[in-house]
Design goal:
Layout: H1 10-29, H2 36-52, H3 58-74, H4 79-98, H5 108-119, H6 123-144
């Protein structure tokens, strides 16, 4: 019987962010062939995130940020990959709580830039931008996690 993860260590955090990058970049690489409803979901999630940033509701902002990342994975059309990604986001959130970083900065401009690169056919540039964003987030958490 599987056991619940209650704490994330540094090695697990690196693995979580590595897996996230591969799943999200698979979504980015699927952009051109993605079903129209999946592309619309990505656009809608980005719009909702933009709207949420006008409020002071950090919990909603963080949820919608995760929804944007999940929508990218959704471009693959694979329910299994989406489910795996949601589990990774849950574990990353646990790591943030463990590190005492309950709030994190949501940068909608970088999300929008990422989607614009995909629309322009600049898939590899978008994946590089994504990788840089995930590395920054991972390193921020690693600095706060116990050694």
């Amino acid at each position: 019987m599987p056991h619940a993860v209650t704490r994330i260590d540094r090695e697990q955090l690196v693995d979580i962010y590595t897996a996230r990058f591969h799943l999200e970049s698979a979504g980015a690489r699927s952009f051109d062939t993605a079903a129209q409803p999946d592309r619309q979901l990505l656009d809608r999630s980005l719009e909702e995130l933009q709207s949420a940033l006008a409020s002071a509701d950090r919990a909603t902002q963080i949820r919608l940020d995760a929804q944007c990342h999940s929508a990218v994975v959704g471009l693959t059309g694979s329910r299994r990959l989406i489910t795996m990604h949601k589990q990774l986001l849950t574990e990353a959130r646990l790591a943030a709580i463990t590190a005492g970083l309950i709030d994190h900065e949501v940068a909608v401009a970088s999300h929008r830039e990422f989607v614009e690169m995909l629309r322009a056919g600049q898939t590899e540039a978008a994946c590089m931008q994504l990788e840089k964003r995930l590395i920054v987030a991972r390193e921020r958490l690693l600095q706060k996690l116990p050694a």
